[in-house]
Amino acid sequence: MDHREPVFLRVFGVDIWWNDHVTLTWALKLFYVDSCLYLLILGLARTSILCFYLRLFPYERFCRLCYALLTIVATTTVLFIVLAMTQCVPISYNWEGWKGDFGPVKCLNLNLLSWSTSAIGIALDTTILIIPLPLVVKVKSTLRRKLYIISMFSLGIMTVISSSIRLRYNIMYGDSINITWDYVDLMIWTGVEVSTSVAVTSLPSIRLMLHRLFPGVFGRIFAFGGHVEQDRERYLKSEAQNLDVEGLSAKGITRQKADPNRSGRGYEDGNSTSSNRSESHSSQHNEYPFQVSKYTTAIDRRQHNHSHY
């Protein structure tokens, strides 16, 4: 038999007793490998979406939520892949057990494993789909552009729908004696679920491709990235300024508005002397050895230049 032939199309959709032994064994071996790849692809798709969220929205609470979800996704993905690989011991029973004379074997409850995987997957997909919506709505943009942005995220609904429909066909999984016939619908909806998951993760790259190929058509509609980068810059600048205010307040230094006649020269320091300002500047670096962004360096440079006046 030529292994390059589409054995799935030759085996599945036909009663098991109408398949020859060699083709059936090869198809079940591929089915075993695909069941592990299915879990891996879904886990990577969820990870990709969460990493995309982290790039778009730098807000502290949202990032913490994304990191928590990343931990859950990684843990459940590894766990379910290990369980799928060791669902029956010896492993060769997964594609040779249909012969009926394999010998002693230990198997997990495959039906329960399938239901658990699907239920946790639906819960994670729904959570990942919902968490960015409040931030997207708050983005300063036109209503039309917001609708396009939301519709881009809404494609993830298809993943949840296909996963929910797939639950219906989990009933026969692990309990069928005619697997090449009873698993057909389950395999179809599994393919739909994986395809939509990959499509959702590819949307950001598709957006950039369309923007480059057709800038006149898709430039305004898909200009979401520019607004997000501006929001990120404003957020990082605000964080740097807040850090600077906290450092000055801890040393008893008041920070007033800059003199319009001295634009760009820094802030007035109230009653503090030049030596106190130098001490405050050095102690601030000791207390905050890290830099939030490039704006922290700019603020420190202005204060250092002002200490010589």
Automatic annotation (TrEMBL):
The keyword Transmembrane applies. Residues 249-298 are annotated as: Disordered. Residues 12-211 form the Rhodopsin domain. Signal peptide: none annotated. Residues 256-268 have a biased composition (Basic and acidic residues). Pfam families: Fung_rhodopsin (PF20684). It is a multi-pass membrane protein. It is found in: Membrane. GO terms for cellular component: membrane. Keywords: Membrane, Transmembrane, Transmembrane helix. The keyword Signal does not apply. The chain crosses the membrane at residues 30-54, 66-93, 113-135, 147-167. It comes from the Eukaryota. Belongs to the SAT4 family. This is CFEM domain-containing protein.
